[in-house]
Amino acid sequence: MLKRTIEIAGEYYITIDLERIKLSNKGDPGNEKFIPLQDSGTIIIDNHSVTLSVAFLQKCAEYNIALVVCGKTHLPASMLMHLHCNQLQTERFNFQIKASQPLRKQIWKQLIQAKIRNQALLLKATGRKYGKVYKLISKVTSGDSFNAEGQAAKIYWQELFSDIEFTREREGNCPNNYLNFGYTILRSATARALTGAGLMATIGIKHKNRYNDFPLADDVMEPYRPFTDRSVLECIKKFGMMDDLTKEVRAHLIQSVYDDVIIGDERTPLSLAISQTAVSLSEVFSGKKKILKLPELRGVADERKAE
Fold first, then answer.
1. Domain residue extents for the chain
2. Splitting the chain (307 residues) into consecutive groups of 10 residues, what average pLDDT does each group show?
């Protein structure tokens, strides 16, 4: 089932009413909105005047809803996730924890190859030079020991934003803020999918940082980043480059999780594709499968013919 990503930017009291999220407008008490819990996947709160109940937090956990809270700059500052939402979780935790280093390196190789492929396909789809990036797919080794990812990134960012002065930095100028917001939405969707698949988002494959609560989400979202990049390009074209994240820009970036992607030769919304990737990862950890289900940007069929 396709879950909704909901942004709450107004001044509301948020409570629960009959398995629905109840939004009561603080300035107009009679103005109420209701959202079915079962339809919700991610909720983004972007207003410091929102008041919410503990019952709402409990229901978010029960329904595996990722709750994202934004800071003063409208960028996500925190995320709340459910800890237990899969009946086979203990068994899958064990497979994940006991995964050998060679297996982890092979998983990372697949993730990075898919990421670089999608970066090349995005460059091609937007009329940019993509050959140098595409050639690096075959250079990815087990564990990416020669850092093909880093080499591809350097070329990719230069080509993707060749018409502006750009350096990819978290605190950098626009469109870094667009990318940061888009990646956080993608990260929350990925963490939710991993939890739903019975995996621990806190134990990563490659990403390891004592201050990072969701390193596995950062690993698994890598092949999906170019889809967010594409949405950022669309934002720049439609709204221009702004240091402040407007409501329109945020809405466009949120919508990207519903864009169609190709996975397993089928088109499906990105948020559902992430769930397929998460389930396939749990199967690789358990030894049932060796190959992850990973996304490809539109136009991949033409690219395969060119190979």
1. 4-80, 89-306
2. 83 94 91 92 89 94 86 75 61 88 96 98 96 97 96 97 91 93 92 84 78 84 97 95 92 91 91 93 94 83 39
Q: Which residue has the tokens 């107009």?
A: 28
User: CA torsion angle for 256, 301, 280, 216 (degrees, to 10)?
Assistant: -50
Span 4-80 CATH architecture: Ribosomal Protein L15; Chain: K; domain 2 (3.100)
Residue 105 has which token pair?
Answer: 């390196």
CATH class for the region spanning 89-306: mainly alpha
Give the amino acid at 184: T
Q: How many CB atoms lie within 10 A of CB 174?
A: 19
pTM (predicted TM-score): 0.81
In the DSSP assignment, the letter for residue 3 is P
DSSP secondary structure letters along 105-118: HHHHHHHHHHHHHH
